[in-house]
Inverse folding.
C-alpha cells in the first residue's frame, strides 16, 4: 500500500470509499494514527503501540471484530442442526456490479433472502419462519470478482401455532428448485432496475444502455444454470459458531497469504478448486493487485451481514423466545463484560500487560501519541 497506492491514486479514478480504505490500511498501526507509550516496571524498557485503523477492509483489524460478532451471536443459536447454503451470481454480471455495486448487492440479498423465506413458509418443506444469516462475499481465491452469499440456516422453522417444525434429517430445501426460484427473482428485480433507470452504464457496460440490449442480456442470463450450493453442517452450537466464524468479518485476502513484494510484483498463495484445492502461487504487478483488492471495497454504509426470519432485528427477541419455548430450552446466560487484556489473552494468547522484552515486568502507560494530520490531495 505505501509503495504503490500513491501512483494508483494518481492514475486511476477511485471511489471515495476505495480511497479511504487505501489510506486507512496504509496508515494502520503506524505513528500516523497515534498510539500509547508504556514502560516496564522491572527492566525500564519503553514500548510504543500504535493504533489500528479499524477499517472493515483492513486484514489486520478483523480478528477483534469477528470475535465480538460471534460473541453477540452466541446467544441466538438454537439447539438444532444447521445448514450452509451459497447463492452465486453468474460472472456475466460482474461488469455491471463494478459500476453499480450497491444496486447489484441489494438485489442479490433480496433475491436470496426471499427465496429462503418462501421455501421455509411452504408447508411442503418447513411450513414456518426460518432463522437465517446471510454474509456477502465478492471475491475468489485470486481476488477476481466472484459474487456470492453464504447463508447459515437453522434446520427447521417456527410454525404458526408456536410449534417447532424440524427439517428432514440431512435435508433442508431442494437445491435445483432453490436455484430456479433465486434466478427468477433476481432477474425480475434486475429487469425492474433497468426499467427504473437505477443503473449506471460506462466502460464495458455501455452497450447495455438500450432496452433491446437489456432484454437480450436478461434472456442470456435466464438460459444459464445458476449455482446454489447446500450442505448439512455439524450439529451443536460450538461447531456452528466455529463454522460461521470462517465466513464473517473476512476481507478479500489475509496477510498470511501474502508471500512477497519484489521489484513491483506481489506473490500470494491461493487454492485451485479445479485441482483438488491444490495450493499455488500467483504473481501480479502491484498496481493490478491493488486494483483487484479494491474491487471488493463495499459501498459506504453497506451491511454485508444480514439476518432474516426469526433473526430479523424487529422481532428477534420475541421470535427467539418462542422458538426456545417450542424446543424446551433456555437462552444462555449473558457473558460478563470482558476487559481488553482478558480478550487478547483468550483469543490471541497474548498478555498485553506483560513486557515483551524481559517477559517478567508489567507495562504501565506513561503517555500517548497524537495522530498525525496528513495532507494529501484527494482523487478527482
Amino acid at each position: 500500500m505505501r509503495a504503490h497506492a500513491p501512483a494508483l491514486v494518481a492514475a486511476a479514478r477511485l471511489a471515495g470509499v476505495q480511497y479511504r480504505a487505501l489510506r486507512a490500511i496504509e496508515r494502520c498501526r503506524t505513528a500516523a494514527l497515534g498510539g500509547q507509550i508504556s514502560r516496564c516496571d522491572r527492566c525500564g524498557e519503553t514500548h510504543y503501540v500504535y493504533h489500528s485503523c479499524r477499517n472493515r477492509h483492513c486484514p489486520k483489524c478483523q480478528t477483534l471484530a469477528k470475535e465480538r460478532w460471534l460473541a453477540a451471536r452466541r446467544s441466538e443459536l438454537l439447539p438444532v442442526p444447521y445448514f450452509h447454503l451459497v447463492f452465486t451470481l453468474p460472472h456475466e454480471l460482474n461488469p455491471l456490479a463494478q459500476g453499480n455495486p450497491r444496486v447489484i448487492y441489494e438485489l442479490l440479498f433480496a433475491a436470496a433472502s426471499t427465496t429462503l423465506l418462501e421455501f421455509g413458509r411452504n408447508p411442503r418443506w418447513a411450513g414456518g419462519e426460518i432463522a437465517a444469516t446471510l454474509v456477502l462475499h465478492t471475491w475468489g481465491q485470486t481476488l477476481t470478482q466472484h459474487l456470492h452469499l453464504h447463508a447459515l440456516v437453522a434446520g427447521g422453522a417456527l410454525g404458526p401455532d408456536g410449534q417447532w417444525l424440524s427439517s428432514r434429517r440431512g435435508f433442508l430445501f431442494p437445491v435445483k428448485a432453490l436455484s430456479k426460484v433465486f434466478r427468477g427473482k433476481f432477474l425480475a428485480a434486475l429487469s425492474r432496475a433497468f426499467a427504473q433507470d437505477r443503473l449506471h452504464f460506462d466502460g464495458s457496460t455501455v452497450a447495455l444502455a438500450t432496452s433491446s440490449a437489456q432484454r437480450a442480456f436478461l434472456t442470456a442470463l435466464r438460459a444459464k444454470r445458476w449455482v446454489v450450493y447446500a450442505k448439512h453442517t455439524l450439529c451443536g452450537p460450538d461447531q456452528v459458531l466455529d463454522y460461521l466464524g470462517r465466513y464473517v468479518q473476512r476481507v478479500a485476502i489475509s496477510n498470511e497469504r501474502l508471500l512477497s513484494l519484489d521489484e513491483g510484483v506481489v506473490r500470494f498463495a491461493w487454492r485451485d478448486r479445479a485441482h483438488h484445492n491444490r495450493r499455488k502461487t500467483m504473481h501480479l504487478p502491484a498496481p493490478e493487485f491493488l486494483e483487484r483488492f479494491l474491487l471488493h471495497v463495499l459501498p459506504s454504509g453497506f451491511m454485508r451481514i444480514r439476518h432474516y426470519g426469526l433473526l430479523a432485528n424487529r422481532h428477534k427477541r420475541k421470535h427467539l423466545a418462542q422458538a426456545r419455548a417450542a424446543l424446551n430450552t433456555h437462552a444462555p446466560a449473558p457473558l460478563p463484560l470482558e476487559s481488553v487484556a482478558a480478550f487478547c489473552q483468550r483469543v490471541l494468547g497474548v498478555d498485553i500487560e506483560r513486557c515483551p522484552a524481559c517477559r517478567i515486568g508489567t507495562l504501565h502507560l506513561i503517555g500517548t501519541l497524537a495522530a498525525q494530520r496528513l495532507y494529501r490531495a484527494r482523487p478527482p
The CA atoms of residues 105 and 283 lie 29 Å apart. DSSP finds eleven helices and 13 strands in the chain. Residues 101-121 form the longest helix (21 residues).
